[in-house]
């Protein structure tokens, strides 16, 4: 499975599901974003890890912004652009941190497994 | 993911990464860190903004709140005249006497000396109504008796304090929890008195007011006449009985504009002696002061700048209490709407002064107050006064079922002699959140306005019918989800929330206590 599939697909799925069934980004989106980043790190090549680690917060942030803007564009007009935008960005901080953390954990797990198989 | 390009070192060592790839990785890292930093900053900012002391006091009031007819928001501003800090400790004696000019730390209880309901409609003018503090009303959440509206807080707090003390609660916890009861009683009492839902509240005490004024001083105010309010000392006998109550704020100002420091500002809003209309003039002072502060904030760009707003909140957050449901960021979004002359303050009328149980009080007619407030807020007045009104109690009419205005299409036909009435009415209803339907001229000229509804629109039709004093009737000729209004000869345009400039001041035709105080500058008052 190419790494890009979980890295992008899961966050997009989570965001769309949240907007469609929850009326706004809820718990499903950050969960999918974190899972997607971790899965991507598990299936990526070693050379791809750098891009997964640095890309996880950007993907989490961008998908949230695009989907929420498409779903609630009217609330981003005028003064809402600053306040709604600030709220949206603030809400993505911990999911972004969690996504990076999940990638680093996945990388550490793979390294550990690789070392054990080398020594074993 | 991205393809790695590398060149193998001569001698077969670790492959060297191509410069382009290194540049790409560096750029990706930079973008990633920037996004993370932006998120962190936003998170910190939002948390800091919401760091004001929160309260659950709205919970009880929300259970019995009348329904909203539109997307307006009602905010109750509570000015608490207490000489204690949030933990119940007396404010320093010197500070209370010399800076606050508020007498001794021992006097005064927990009176809500300023009660203002701010009505922010989806669009249009913001209305602010002050409830005079001595209005004699039925209290709720306190002891269930008639009291001055300002005393609901103190009675509820005292009752809660006794119960909590019996449970072993003490110290700051006792103060915090008992104040919650006071806030809840105040909100419930005002909500029932005016029959409008209170969505949010903000409470500021004497110290908080002083801190806000300190952060903003000098503040420009304007007086119609010069004022001299000397301080009169309180005299007690050897047993501590009050022989002569103290009074006066020490305020001395000329007519016209003056620049006030924080202590003078407090005197300006607290003066009640040496004023033609006493306490009622004090209410106008409070309104004028808020208007002046708002004007200053606008001039300094604070209301349009989240950073400056945050800096101001940092100063006052320790003295201000707001409900736990209020997102200050949302309010920051609405704050610019509160400027530029878009707010008008009115004082609810009293019927007469009276003395009840040795207390000087304002007698009010709750039913009349409700009608005025509803009209001022652009809602249909109650068709008939509640029977309880004549006895001075504040029974609440059935608010009726919740209405899904956004999914109700309203078709308006003009059968009235007023040209363009259907179009205007359609716009007014759209401002209330209803979906605008067909606007046509009726084939007939009915004497009274009629309201008919299709399937699924009964609740909305009943609410709309109340607006015209009509009765809603089901009709198979009306499409599902539609309400059909035929304006009759009896039609006179009701005020609409968010009605455009055509009706700049609905209060003009309403009986209020004194002239309105208009924001958008520095209004002059007595």
From TrEMBL, chain A:
TM ranges: 27-44, 49-71, 91-109
Residue ranges annotated for the DUF6542 domain, each copy included: 3-116
Keyword field: Membrane, Transmembrane, Transmembrane helix
Source species, domain of life: Bacteria
Name of protein: DUF6542 domain-containing protein
Organism: Kitasatospora cheerisanensis KCTC 2395
Lineage: Bacteria, Bacillati, Actinomycetota, Actinomycetes, Kitasatosporales
TrEMBL record, chain B:
Keywords from the UniProt entry: Membrane, Transmembrane, Transmembrane helix
Domain of life: Bacteria
Sequence segments annotated as region (Disordered): 379-404
Stretches assigned to the Cell envelope-related transcriptional attenuator domain: 111-298
Gene3D superfamilies: 3.30.70.2390, LCP protein (3.40.630.190)
InterPro entries, per the entry: LytR/CpsA/Psr_C, LytR/CpsA/Psr_CW_biosynth, LytR_CpsA_psr
TM spans (from-to): 20-44
Feature: compositional bias, Low complexity: 387-397
All copies of domain LytR/CpsA/Psr regulator C-terminal, residue ranges: 408-491
Annotated NCBIfam families: lytR_cpsA_psr (TIGR00350)
Family named by the database record: Belongs to the LytR/CpsA/Psr (LCP) family.
Record-given protein name: Putative lytR family regulatory protein
Native organism taxonomy: Bacteria, Bacillati, Actinomycetota, Actinomycetes, Kitasatosporales
């Amino acid at each position: 499975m190419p790494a890009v599939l979980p890295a992008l697909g899961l966050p997009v799925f989570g965001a769309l599901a949240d907007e469609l069934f929850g009326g706004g980004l809820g718990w499903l989106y950050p969960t999918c974003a974190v899972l997607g980043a971790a899965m991507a790190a598990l299936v990526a090549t070693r050379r791809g890890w750098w891009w997964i680690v640095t890309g996880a917060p950007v993907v989490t942030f961008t998908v949230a912004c695009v989907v929420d803007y498409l779903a609630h564009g009217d609330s981003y007009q005028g003064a809402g652009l600053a306040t709604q935008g600030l709220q949206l960005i603030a809400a993505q901080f911990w999911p972004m941190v969690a996504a990076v953390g999940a990638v680093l954990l996945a990388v550490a797990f793979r390294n550990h497994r690789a070392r054990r198989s080398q020594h074993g | 993911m991205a393809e790695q390009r590398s060149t193998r070192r001569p001698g077969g060592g670790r492959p060297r990464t191509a410069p382009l790839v290194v540049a790409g990785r560096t750029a990706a890292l930079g973008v990633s860190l920037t996004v993370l930093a932006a998120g962190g900053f936003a998170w910190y900012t939002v948390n800091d903004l919401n760091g004001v002391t929160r309260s659950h006091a709205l919970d009880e009031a929300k259970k019995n709140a009348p329904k909203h007819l539109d997307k307006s928001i009602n905010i109750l501003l509570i000015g608490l005249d207490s000489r204690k800090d949030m933990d119940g400790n007396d404010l320093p004696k010197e500070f209370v006497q010399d800076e606050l000019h508020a007498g001794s730390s021992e006097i005064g209880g927990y009176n809500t000396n300023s009660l203002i309901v701010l009505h922010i409609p989806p669009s249009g003018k913001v209305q602010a109504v002050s409830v005079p503090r001595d209005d004699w009303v039925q209290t709720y959440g306190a002891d269930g008796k008639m009291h001055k509206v300002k005393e609901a807080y103190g009675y509820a707090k005292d009752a809660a304090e006794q119960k909590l003390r019996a449970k072993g609660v003490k110290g700051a916890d006792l103060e915090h929890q008992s104040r919650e009861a006071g806030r809840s009683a105040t909100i419930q009492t005002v909500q029932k008195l005016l029959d409008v839902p209170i969505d949010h509240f903000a409470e500021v005490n004497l110290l908080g007011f002083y801190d806000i004024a300190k952060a903003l001083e000098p503040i420009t105010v304007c007086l119609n006449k010069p004022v001299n309010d000397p301080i009169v000392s309180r005299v007690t006998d050897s047993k501590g009985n009050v022989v002569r109550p103290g009074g006066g704020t020490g305020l001395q100002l000329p007519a016209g504009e003056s620049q006030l420091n924080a202590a003078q500002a407090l005197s300006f809003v607290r003066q009640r002696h040496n004023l033609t209309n006493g306490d009622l003039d004090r209410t106008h002072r409070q309104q004028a002061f808020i208007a002046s502060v708002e004007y200053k904030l606008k001039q300094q760009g604070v209301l349009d700048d989240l950073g400056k707003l945050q800096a101001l909140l940092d100063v006052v957050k320790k003295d201000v209490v707001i409900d736990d449901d209020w997102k200050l960021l949302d309010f920051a979004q609405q704050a610019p709407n509160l400027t530029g002359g878009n707010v008008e303050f009115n004082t609810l009328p009293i019927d007469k002064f009276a003395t009840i149980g040795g207390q000087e009080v304002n007698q009010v007619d709750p039913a009349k107050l409700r009608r005025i407030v509803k009209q001022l807020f652009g809602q249909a007045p109650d068709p008939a006064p509640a029977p309880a009104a004549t006895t001075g109690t504040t029974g609440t009419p059935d608010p009726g079922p919740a209405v899904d205005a956004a999914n109700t299409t309203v078709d308006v036909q003009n059968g009235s002699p007023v040209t363009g009435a259907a179009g205007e009415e359609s716009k007014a209803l759209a401002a209330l959140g209803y979906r605008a339907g067909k606007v046509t001229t009726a084939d007939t000229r009915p004497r009274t306005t009629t309201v008919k509804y299709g399937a699924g629109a009964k609740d909305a039709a009943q609410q709309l019918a109340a607006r015209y004093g009509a009765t809603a009737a089901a009709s198979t000729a009306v499409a599902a989800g539609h309400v059909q209004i035929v304006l009759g000869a009896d039609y006179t345009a009701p005020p609409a929330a968010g009605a455009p400039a055509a009706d700049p001041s609905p209060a003009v035709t309403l009986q209020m206590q004194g002239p309105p105080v208009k924001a958008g500058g520095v209004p002059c008052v007595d």
